[in-house]
Amino acid sequence: MTSASSQPLKKPLWIGTSWKMNKTIAEADAFCDVVRASPLASSRAPQLFVVPPFTVLDRVASALRGTSIMVGAQNVHWEDQGAWTGEISPVQVADCGASLVEIGHSERRTYFNETDETVGLKAAAAQRHGLIALICVGDSHSEHAAGTSDEAVSRQTRAALAKIDAGGAALPVIAYEPVWSIGEKGVPAEPDFVNAQHLVIKEAATAALGRDLPVLYGGSVSLANAVALASQPNVNGLFIGRAAWQADGFLAIAAEVGAACV
Ligand SMILES: O=C(COP(=O)(O)O)[C@@H](O)CO
């Protein structure tokens, strides 16, 4: 018999996926068709979200309209319009029907010179336009090896929230994404380590805004480890890459986590 203390905590949870630079229009349509047909599409327990590339943002938002699934963009500029070739503004993201926007993913910090300062500017721009900023923070391989993960995520969280209006609407959600855990060569983080890092992030957010923010975990999440991660007390959801790029995989994780933790 399972003791009450070993039962996963029941709580509101977010479960989402970013497709990164993947999927054609036809592939995006196929994903939406499957997800729309699931009972999870009309539930907010867990709250599902999908973050497609800009090429299908408007299309995915339209396809999932009328469901409870939120749709987000993978990046945003901090200005509303202007001579910023190749960039997409928060006005344009909202106009596509998105309600959230991912900011500061480690791939953007590493390959596209995203800095703590630009993450802060983008997060504030998102909030001005009623978009929930899904702010990614994470320790690098070297910071993890040096035992300075806490300082890294705390610094990134403070910078990201520096221009947020704590009393405003559309408060951000944070995703803890250890750089050493993301992608093909990633090592899944241990649930108790994740829980401890989430507490560090929550403390930094509370110091900055005077209130708690949801903190999701991302990095090599799979059907095998999802419940163990999501059931940690300081984990408010999962942000999934590869394991959720196929609709069946996404729904399987959402259903399992939902049954165990929501
Ligand atoms: O990068 C992420 C995790 O990717 P995995 O493929 O699950 O390691 C996260 O931002 C979701 O895209």
From TrEMBL:
<comment type="subunit">
    <text>Homodimer.</text>
</comment>
<comment type="similarity">
    <text>Belongs to the triosephosphate isomerase family.</text>
</comment>
<dbReference type="InterPro" id="IPR000652">
    <property type="entry name" value="Triosephosphate_isomerase"/>
</dbReference>
<keyword id="KW-0324">Glycolysis</keyword>
<dbReference type="Pfam" id="PF00121">
    <property type="entry name" value="TIM"/>
</dbReference>
<comment type="pathway">
    <text>Carbohydrate metabolism; erythritol degradation.</text>
</comment>
<protein>
    <recommendedName>
        <fullName>Triosephosphate isomerase</fullName>
        <ecNumber>5.3.1.1</ecNumber>
    </recommendedName>
</protein>
<dbReference type="GO" id="GO:0006096">
    <property type="term" value="P:glycolytic process"/>
</dbReference>
<dbReference type="InterPro" id="IPR013785">
    <property type="entry name" value="Aldolase_TIM"/>
</dbReference>
<dbReference type="GO" id="GO:0006094">
    <property type="term" value="P:gluconeogenesis"/>
</dbReference>
<keyword id="KW-0413">Isomerase</keyword>
<keyword id="KW-0312">Gluconeogenesis</keyword>
<dbReference type="GO" id="GO:0046166">
    <property type="term" value="P:glyceraldehyde-3-phosphate biosynthetic process"/>
</dbReference>
<dbReference type="GO" id="GO:0005829">
    <property type="term" value="C:cytosol"/>
</dbReference>
<dbReference type="GO" id="GO:0019563">
    <property type="term" value="P:glycerol catabolic process"/>
</dbReference>
<dbReference type="InterPro" id="IPR035990">
    <property type="entry name" value="TIM_sf"/>
</dbReference>
<dbReference type="GO" id="GO:0004807">
    <property type="term" value="F:triose-phosphate isomerase activity"/>
</dbReference>
<keyword id="KW-0963">Cytoplasm</keyword>
<dbReference type="InterPro" id="IPR020861">
    <property type="entry name" value="Triosephosphate_isomerase_AS"/>
</dbReference>
<comment type="pathway">
    <text>Carbohydrate degradation; glycolysis; D-glyceraldehyde 3-phosphate from glycerone phosphate: step 1/1.</text>
</comment>
